[in-house]
Amino acid sequence: MIIWDKLIRIFHWLLVLCFCLNYFWLEPGDSFHQAVGYTAATLIIIRIIWGFTGPPNARFHNFLPSVAGIKEHVSELRHRKVNQAQGHNPLGGLMVFSLLALFLLQAITGFLREEINALYGDSFLTSVHSISANIIFTLVIIHIVAVVVTAYIGKIELIRPMITGRRRTKHHDRAK
């Protein structure tokens, strides 16, 4: 079954590339770092638009986190029967919204400190930009661990669909 459309998959992996380039390899503030940052910001804007106009699994309203949704997801994990047709679970939705907000913060602080003469090199903006990048890195590590753990415990393919768009269903969902 199709889980992730092509735009979501391209967005995901390009954002991964942008983050890795700017966090690990490119010199903060140099022209390549800025270009990659603007690329990431463009990707975030496209993803936000797609969150309102894209297919069901891409739409934000389909994975808004709630206490009830999180409890249901934890129950599914406890029973090792996660819904195979869903895209993001409620905790994954919380991660998506957190990362989108942090990447927007990165774009805004990066733009302000580099492009607005009165704020060029502002130490507060630089600190916010640096701290939010470190928070993104921490959330990425949590995301990777959560994907592996959820895939194992919930008996659900999570990595393959982010590459191919398709998920092979498990036996417990075919019986439903």
Quickly count the helices.
7
**What is the β-strand count?**
0
C-alpha end-to-end distance: 15 Å
Main sheet: strands, sense, barrel: none
Subcellular location: Cell membrane
GO molecular function, one term: heme binding
Main location: membrane
GO biological process, one term: respiratory electron transport chain
Question: Quick summary of this structure?
Answer:
The chain is mainly α and about 180 residues long. The protein has helices at about 5-25, 30-55, 65-80, 90-115, 125-155, 160-165, 170-175.
Describe the SSE topology.
Blueprint: H1 6-25, H2 31-53, H3 67-78, H4 90-115, H5 123-153, H6 159-164, H7 171-174
Description:
- This is Cytochrome b/b6 domain-containing protein.
- The chain crosses the membrane at residues 7-26, 32-50, 91-111, 131-153.
- With 176 residues, the chain is mainly alpha-helical.
- The chain has 7 helices and no strands.
- The chain has helices at 6-25, 31-53, 67-78, 90-115, 123-153, 159-164, 171-174.
- Helix 1 runs antiparallel to helix 2 (31-53), helix 2 (31-53) packs across helix 4 (90-115) and helix 4 (90-115) runs antiparallel to helix 5.
- Residues 172-176 have low confidence and may be disordered.
Record keyword descriptors for this entry.
transmembrane helix, Cytochrome b/b6 domain-containing protein, 176 residues, single chain, mainly alpha, cell membrane, Hydrogenase_cytochrome, transmembrane, 69% helix
